[in-house]
Amino acid sequence: MNKKKRIDNERKFDEWIEINNSGRIYRLKIIGKFKGYAIYEKEVDKGENTIKFTQFIYDEDNTLK
Fold first, then answer.
1. Beta-strand pair 15-19/50-58
2. In the prediction, which pLDDT does 15 show?
3. pLDDT score of 42
4. Which of 47, 56, 62, 65 could crosslink 39 through cysteines, CB 3.0-4.6 Å?
5. What is the 3-state secondary structure (H, E, C) of 11-58?
């Protein structure tokens, strides 16, 4: 495990969950300037190497775009 990467990820993202002892999923919610919001998810392995990064965009009606 790369402790520096883990500390950086924990600082940058609001929340995270452990994935069956094989890594983590970090989540960050950003409120839009006018309406809507975005959720960013970063999935990492045990070594804190990024496996997948996903961006979800929602409008003011909470509809995923």
1. unpaired
2. 97
3. 98
4. 56
5. HHCCEEEEECCCEEEEEEEEECCCCCEEEEEEEEECCCCEEEEEEEEE
